[in-house]
Design brief:
This protein is mainly beta. It has 2 domains: 179 residues, Beta Barrel (OB fold (Dihydrolipoamide Acetyltransferase, E2P)); 57 residues, Ribosomal protein L2, domain 3, CATH 4.10.950.10. The chain has 2 helices and 17 strands. It has a 7-stranded antiparallel β-sheet with strand order 9-16-10-13-14-15-17, with no helix packed on it.
């Protein structure tokens, strides 16, 4: 789905582009699959800010997505392709033969009226979900489980896909969008195809207000602060950082700071890191 550009009628319109939603459903979301989406403005249960620059934004409802695809061998008809404010990808409303409705991540190319099915014997076509053991090597997949039955955790953002590279000893080797090579159990489910809204990365917000609509508040540069507020602060004129590298307000390295736990149990499943090591 393409992006839509505007005529430069105002300074913000000059650099603004939006996703073209003309192919999406014009009706509202399925009410039985909606849940509340409470705002917390970056605060934890004690009321303390743990994530900065959050607050405001448009009111949203959470769409309950079926990340497990456990209704095996039961065809479902795509009722509509819809917008989801909680993710970059589009979602598809499907109705199974028994009448049950569910939301799934919409792959690129899926449209209303198509049929999708989950199961080991399903066809290799976008929207169908199969165990990795039943998917041919070289196939592009998304919505991949890390642990059987837990629900998909990998390759869920707009325009993303992973590639099945090999299968050996009950494990499937995947090349993830980051470049990481990782083994996943063959019994994990994955969906064929690429995630929808592939032009999401080309959208230009154009003005600060659109970021506020998303619930992001302004970010102040550390170099504009006083030295008691930020390690970058203070100095005469436009002073340099004054440290070997950029720092967070709490003095930690802002770039290249590894947060993954040491000796994590899943380390043995990672064949090649995203940084090539």
């Amino acid at each position: 789905m393409a992006t839509k550009n505007y005529t430069a009628s105002t300074p913000s319109r000059r650099n603004m582009s939006v996703t073209d939603y003309s192919a999406l459903s014009k009706k509202g979301p399925e009410k039985s699959l909606l849940d509340t989406n409470k705002k917390n403005a970056g605060r934890n249960s004690y009321g303390r800010i743990t994530v900065r620059h959050r607050g405001g934004g448009n009111r949203t409802k959470y769409r309950v997505i079926d990340f497990k695809r456990q209704k095996m061998d039961m065809p479902a008809t795509v009722q509509s392709i819809e917008y989801d404010p909680n993710r970059s990808a589009f979602i598809a409303l499907v109705q199974y033969e028994d009448g049950e409705k569910a939301y799934i991540l919409a792959p690129h190319g899926l449209k209303a009226g198509d049929t999708v099915v989950a199961g080991a014997n399903a066809d290799i076509k976008p929207g169908n979900a199969l165990p990795l053991a039943s998917i041919p090597t070289g196939t592009y997949v998304h919505n991949v489980e890390l642990y059987p039955g837990k629900g998909a955790q990998l390759a869920r953002a707009a325009g993303i896909m992973a590639q099945l590279m090999a299968k050996e000893n009950g494990m499937a080797l995947l090349r993830l969008p980051s470049g990481e090579l990782r083994n996943v159990p063959e019994s994990c489910m994955a969906t064929i195809g690429q995630v929808s809204n592939i032009d999401h990365e080309n959208v230009k917000l154009g003005k600060a207000g659109r970021k506020r609509h998303m619930g992001w508040r302004p970010t102040v540069r550390g170099s504009a602060m006083n030295p008691n507020d930020h390690p970058h602060g203070g100095g005469e004129g436009k002073a340099p950082v004054g440290h070997p590298g950029p720092m967070t307000p709490w003095g930690k390295p802002a770039l290249g700071y590894k947060t993954r736990a040491h000796h994590k149990a899943s380390d043995k499943l990672i064949v090649k890191r995203r940084n090539g090591k």
